[in-house]
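Example record used in the benchmark description.
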Amino acid sequence: MTKKDYYEILGVDRNASKAEIKKAYRKLALKYHPDKNPSKEAEEKFKEISEAYAVLSDDEKRRLYDQYGHAGIDQQYSTEDLFRDIDFGDIFRGMGFDFEDIFSHFFGHPFRRRESQRYRGADLRYDLEITLEETYEGIKKEIQIPRTEICDLCNGSGSQPGYEPTRCPVCGGAGEIRQSRRTAFGIFTQVMPCRRCNGKGVIIEHPCKKCGGKGTVVVTRTITVKIPPGVEEGSQLRLHGEGESGPGGNGDLYIVVHIKPHPIFQREGADLYMTKEISFPEAALGGKVDIETISGEKISLKIPEGTQNGDVFKLRRYGMPYLNSSRYGDLFVEVHVKTPRSLSRKARKLLLELQKELNQ
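Model output (structure tokens):
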């Protein structure tokens, strides 16, 4: 029997929008729904309008139908597979119906929608090493990221331009095989991915020369990463959409920041720690010593008279910036009093005299 035109079935123009197609289907579905109209004719009409909606509401199926008619659809999809990736839920939930129960009745077994194949691409990770000075100032870095992208020659189909993937002859395009066997407890049905098409439902007979039939290619991209001042070791920056490509959109790129050890400063949170050698006379008599901070600024640290080895001095706001804040940590300077390894005769004499004076 010759099938009727899908546009004619729904009563819409060939240039109708998705919203118009959905509105027309909803109106007809209310009229012919089996729960509202239990006649055999209504059931057949409901199947007919549902098949038309399944095709015309999907961009790829509609393209095949517009180009090849019913033959283009019949060669690519089984009747059941037409409905797998179509969301009838929002239509039937509004009517108080369960579309899976409805179509299970049509197909004679539980209807399971295949998980949507418009999966999102995988996330990527990149470990970026920066210096403490770069952490203090914040910096922009250019990095090279190899990632998988949809092949631009075949648009992800895997087939050479001018050819289309063909429906798998083993699973009929379903991507899965059902095996049923009778047991003492009843009929047991096992569903497995089709080995012939690896669960894809289609066979690529003319592989794309660029991607080799995979539908994807590896492309190295240059990305500019902005590191804000004050990030800490192990901080993660998320770049939305810079991960692997996928039919449902790109994944994300996670930049993991690692900070190189510094020869002078040690960091704890926003505070910095360093040591500074001073001479014995400076410790005993007091004075001033120059300190170069992480920003490169030179400041003068006052050493009070009688400073002891290991004493710590705090320089407020000369530490690291807090992330996303105008606040700064502090710089802690621990002094090490340097003892001379050798003395001149004059220096020895003076120290002996000092020792006698201090011991009195």
